[in-house]
Every structure is written in C-alpha cells, then in structure tokens.
Specification:
By secondary structure, the chain is mainly α. The chain folds into three domains: about 50 residues, no CATH class; about 60 residues, no CATH class; about 110 residues, no CATH class. The longest helix has 26 residues. About 20% of the residues are buried. This is DnaJ domain-containing protein.
C-alpha cells in the first residue's frame, strides 16, 4: 500500500526519467532504480508497521520459532526481546547454536541465556528456573517449621529429596523432576543434557554465548558430581 502511494506521488518525476533513460539505451539503470525503490519501500513499510502497529515483540517471537526452532509464547517473547531487537547498544545474539540442543531443553537454554544477559545488565532476571522454584519452596517450608525436632525427623526416602534441598536442585538441573530408581537414570540424563553444550557446537557464537555454554557445562558437572557422591553405588 505505502509503495503504491509513493509511486503515485513520484509519477510526475519518474515518467520523464524513464523515457530519458530508455532513449539513451540506459534502460538497465531504470530497472535498478525501480527494484531499489520496491525493495526499499517494502523494508521501510515493515519498519513503519513495526514502530506503529505491530507489537514490538513480534520479530523476536518469529525469530525464536522459525530460525532457532524454539517454541515460546507471546509473553515470553516480550521478556526476552532484548536479545534480538538491538536494544543492547545495537548488539543482538543470533543463537544459532540452540538448534543443536535437544528440543526438550531449547526453551530452558534460551531462558537461562536471557537471565544471564539480564543479570549482566543489572536487570531483574526475566525467567524463574525450576531449581529457583524448588529453592523457594524449601525456603518457605523451613520458615514454616516451628522446631528443630520437625526438621530432624524429615527423612530422605526414595522418590523424595526433602531432607536435602540441594538434591532436588541438582535433579532439576539435569532435567529430572523426581528421584529416579537407578543411578543409571541420573547418568543418562546428565549425558543427554551436557551433550548440547559441547564447545564445538558454540564455536561460531559470540563470546558471551560461548561463556554461557561453558558455565552451563560446569553447572551440569557440579550437579552430576553432587548426586554421584550421594547415590552412586547406593541405588538399585
């Protein structure tokens, strides 16, 4: 629409110019100008729509879903749009390496990276991670206890990890939401998740993204080592 309106406004100038170029065997220049106008007008229309009508988070939403194949909601796109819209002093993060991560963990990886960048900017982290929720639940439970006796009588039965909050946090980090029956399940979960953060997969990413992958690997290694020290050889 805007391109057509612009063409009508420029008609008194464009017609004589077209005739002049064609008569001088310079028709190719006219074709170049015409295509430059069409492409420029199209891009300008998109920018104008984005600034006036379209929601600011829509490009981030489309980019996450169609380019890095990560399903996010409109609300989540709003909260992480700073990664893609250039608002960080013109910087943005393509995050193509996320396509190499297991689809089950892509959303988590994207949200954790958004939290990292937000924290570095001094902002509140936009996403609560599973272990954050679990940590808050344990904190609330501890505050509700009225005596040390109640705490001492809490047991760590199979399928429960209420006696040691760190166990639950480490399980959540590895993608496990309850205590598995075998340590082999913990080992399999660790191997599956850490495979997505191999340095080779992030070799072409920006330094911040590579640092994030290294931090995630260390976090996964710590979680696995902690669970190994508690349960290796002790589970059926």
């Amino acid at each position: 629409m805007l391109v057509v309106v612009g063409a009508d406004l420029l008609h008194p100038i464009s017609d004589p110019l077209e005739r002049e170029l064609k008569s001088s065997d310079l028709e190719w220049i006219w074709l170049v100008l015409m295509w430059a106008y069409i492409i420029g007008g199209y891009l300008g229309s998109l920018i104008l729509l984005n600034k006036t009508i379209l929601p600011f988070w829509l490009p981030s939403y489309l980019y996450a879903r169609s380019i890095i194949f990560t399903k996010i909601s409109a609300d989540e796109a709003k909260r992480l749009s700073f990664l893609f819209d250039g608002s960080l002093n013109g910087s943005w993060y393509p995050l193509g390496a996320l396509r190499k991560i297991d689809p089950e963990f892509r959303r988590e990886a994207l949200f954790r990276f958004a939290n990292k960048i937000a924290a570095e900017q001094g902002w509140q982290r936009p996403f609560a991670m599973p272990e954050d929720i679990l940590r808050n639940q344990h904190r609330a439970k501890d505050e509700a206890h009225t005596s040390q006796k109640e705490t001492r009588h809490t047991t760590n039965k199979p399928g429960s990890f209420s006696a040691d909050p760190q166990i639950g946090i480490c399980l959540q980090i590895l993608g496990l939401h309850q205590m598995p029956k075998s340590f082999e399940d913990i080992k399999a979960a660790y191997r599956r998740k850490i495979a997505g953060f191999h340095p080779d997969k992030f070799s072409n990413e920006r330094a911040e993204v590579l640092q994030y992958a290294e931090e995630e690997s260390k976090r996964l290694n710590f979680a696995y080592s902690y669970l190994e020290s508690r349960f290796a050889g002790k589970m059926t």
